[in-house]
Structure formats: C-alpha cells, structure tokens
Amino acid sequence: DEDSSGKTFGAFRGLILRSQLIVLLKHKVFFESGKEAAKHQLTMKDFRDAYPRFQPVRTIRVSPLERECCLDLRPFMNVMPYTVHEESSISRVFHLFRAIGLRHLIVVDHHNQVVGIVTRKDLARYRQWSHMGKTRLEKIHVLDDSNSSGDE
Q1: 104 in a domain, yes or no?
Q2: Which of 107, 108, 147, 141 is nearest to 124 (CA)?
Q3: DSSP sequence for the chain
Q4: Residue 4 resides in a domain
Q5: Main-chain dihedrals φ then ψ at residue 15, nearest 5 degrees
Q6: Same domain, 64 and 98
Q7: 142 vs 79, higher pLDDT
Q8: Closest residue by Cα to residue 73 from 18, 5, 130, 133
Q9: CB of 7 within 8 A of CB of 73?
Q10: Per-residue pLDDT for 59 more than 90?
Q11: In the structure, what pLDDT confidence band is assigned to residue 1 with cuts at 50, 70 and 90?
C-alpha cells in the first residue's frame, strides 16, 4: 500500500479465509444480535467435505432475518497468521512468501493496527536475485493491457 496517510483498519485479531466463510454461511452458523452465540458443532470434516470445490457465495441462500444475525468468527479464524511490520523490507516479505508459500500477508504498525495486505500478485511485479552474498529485488515492468489505446 503506497498510501502513507497513517490510516489503519483496526486492531489485528486474526485471519479467516473466504472458503471458511462460505462453509459458515452454508451451515448457517448465525446468532441473533444481543444474544449469546450458540455452540455449533461444525467439525473439520465439514470444512474438508467442501474442499477443493467450495460453493460459490452467490448460490448460498440467506434469508432477510438471517441477514440481521451475527457470526462469531473467533472459533474458526487463525489468530496467529504470519504478519510483517510496515517497515519490513521487501526482501523479508519476498522471503516469507517463497519460503512458506504464503498467498497473502497482513501488514501491521507498531500498535498491531492493520495498515495493509500484501498478496502474491503484488510481489509478482518483482524479481529477486542474489550475487556474491547480496540479495536484490528488481521491479519488472509489465505493460498493462487495460491502459493500452488499442491503436496497434
């Protein structure tokens, strides 16, 4: 994120995947606002059975009443995913993606406030290389088809 306005998106509590949200919606793990969340008996099998073909979100039916309800994501989210500080070097970020096989990485400030997210697509614009013990990153310039005039 190149915006240096100091804007944050709240304290980082954890990470939940879209695929997990789909399973939760499909199994209607809702509770009414102001009431205690019910203990749902979702198991790993429920998540495994949906893998790798997760139902498209648009096919999940949620009633108007259910839309007013809440979802408690805490039992399902990863509260300790990899994060990087906003002042981390791009070399460190690149190394984390390559060594661990990450798809996305949350960027936080010194108060653990979310300031951004780095994705594989963000890093695809860079090439890492090493020479004589030094690691360097080089930006790859890619022509964006959406900006072309079509006069070719």
Answers
A1: yes
A2: 141
A3: ----S-----B---B--HHHHHHHHHTT--B-TTSPPP-----HHHHHHH-SSPPPGGG----HHHHTSB---TTTSBSS--EEETT--HHHHHHHHHHHT-SEEEEE-TT-BEEEEEEHHHHTTEEEEEETTEEEEEEPP---GGG--S--
A4: no
A5: -130, 135
A6: no
A7: 79
A8: 18
A9: no
A10: no
A11: very low
pTM for the whole structure: 0.66
Nearest Cα to 109, choosing from 2, 7, 3? 7
Confirm if 129 and 139 have CB atoms less than 8 A apart. no
| Two tokens, residue 69 | 């309800």
Specify the pLDDT at position 37: 66
Specify the number of domains making up the chain: 2
Q: Which amino acid is at 105?
A: L
What domain range includes position 44?
15-77
Shared-domain flag, residues 61 and 87:
no
Judge whether residue 142 has pLDDT over 70.
Answer: no
Q: Which of 5-9, 65-69, 119-123 has the lowest mean pLDDT?
A: 5-9
- Of the three residues 30, 54, 77, the one that is the final residue of a domain is 77
Asked if residue 149 is part of any domain, the answer here is: no
Identify whether residues 60 and 86 lie together within a single domain: no
